[in-house]
Design brief:
Strand content of chain B: 35-45%
Oligomer: heterodimer
Number of domains of chain B: 1
Largest interface: A-B, 36 and 41 residues
Order of helices and strands of chain B: HEEEEEEEE
Radius of gyration of chain A: 24 Å
Strand content of chain A: 25-35%
Strand order of the largest sheet of chain A: 1-2-3-4
Number of strands of chain B: 8
Distance between the termini of chain B: 91 Å
Largest sheet of chain A: 4 strands, antiparallel
Number of domains of chain A: 1
Structural class of chain A: alpha+beta
Structural class of chain B: alpha+beta
Radius of gyration of chain B: 25 Å
Number of helices of chain B: 1
Distance between the termini of chain A: 84 Å
Number of helices of chain A: 1
Shape of chain A: elongated
Chain lengths: 129, 187
């Protein structure tokens, strides 16, 4: 009987170690994948930020507020799409959101992907008149 | 008879446990190697990207010459990107050239890999790792559409590095991405 119990314990321990290792492997793989998506999201978010800044005068920046556009990170045989949410608001001299018009606007751009429930990256830029 | 059965059972339990522990250890070391390869690839691609970003921001600085050449191959990769800037003494012609390095076989598919070489006034002055799968530089207008260099307001660069992982008979490929869009002041 004691031998049976010891054998059972040994096999349980082995299975536990194996399962733990599998979980760690999966976590490593997921974190590598997450970082790649964050890099791609960062690239498309910054691209959109440059487009907003280059194509729009300060007065018209609010036209972008609430817009959601789709941008692709793509190569010849690879494409990943990201939804880019844009928010524009007035901020005061300390960079805090202001309820009244000021001389500075903050453009906030968030990039998300259908694989993830949270935005992958968020960038903000202050643009003065 | 009972003793023989006990011994056989003990041997079976021992070999089962040993097999599980050995395969777990093997899997753990393989994961460590793969994550190290992935980390090194990412590190190299981020360093290349940071250098490239600094370089692209200086397009046209101190000179009337800007981007003079963007050549893409049939796969959409930029094989030659040429622009000018001044280094405070004279105008410099900076050129990125994409050079094929090798082809690896992954699950029966051929994956071509490249190296990006940098030239200053047609003299070689460094380059990237030889494992790039894609290198694309595009000139964009203010709305993000691809345009000819003369009409460019933005410059977009994207790179994909690639590395094989796993056993030779069950190989798969890993990728590291990098991308950036800059608005050079003097473009």
């Amino acid at each position: 009987m004691p031998q049976t119990m010891l054998a059972f314990l040994a096999m349980t321990m082995a299975v536990f170690i194996a399962l733990n290792q599998q979980r760690a492997d999966l976590k490593t793989f997921e974190s590598i994948l997450d970082s790649e998506y964050e890099i791609m999201a960062n690239a498309v978010a910054l691209e959109q930020m440059e487009i907003v800044a280059a194509s729009t005068s300060w007065d018209d920046l609010h036209d972008w507020n609430g817009d959601v556009v789709t941008r692709n990170f793509s190569f010849n045989n690879f494409q990943e799409s990201f939804d880019i949410a844009i928010m524009v608001r007035f901020v005061d001299g300390s960079g805090n959101p202001s309820g009244v018009p000021t001389m500075t606007k903050e453009v906030v751009i968030s990039a998300s992907n259908s694989r993830f429930t949270r935005p992958l990256v968020t960038h903000a830029r202050l643009i003065s008149e | 008879m009972q003793l023989i059965i006990d011994n056989i059972l003990a041997a079976l339990v021992y070999s089962s446990v040993a097999l599980v522990v050995i395969s777990t250890q093997f899997s753990a070391s393989q994961t460590t190697v793969e994550s190290t390869i992935s980390y090194m690839s990412k590190k190299q691609i981020l360093e290349l990207g940071a250098t490239l970003e600094q370089e692209l921001k200086l397009i046209g600085q101190g000179t009337t010459n800007k981007i003079t050449q963007v050549i893409n191959n049939a796969d959409g990769q930029t094989t030659r990107f040429t622009f000018w800037r001044n280094n405070g003494v004279s105008d410099l012609k900076i050129e990125f050239r994409l050079v094929a390095t090798d082809t690896i076989m992954v699950n029966g598919d051929q994956v071509k890999r490249y190296r990006m070489d940098r030239y200053e006034n047609d003299v070689y002055s460094g380059g990237s790792v030889p494992t790039l799968r894609d290198f694309v530089v595009e000139t964009l207008d203010a709305n993000g559409n691809v345009v000819v260099p003369a009409s460019a307001v933005l410059v977009r660069a994207r790179i994909r590095d690639t590395y094989p992982l796993g056993d030779p008979d069950e190989m798969h490929i890993g990728h590291s991405f990098w991308g950036m869009t800059v608005r050079p002041e003097n473009i």
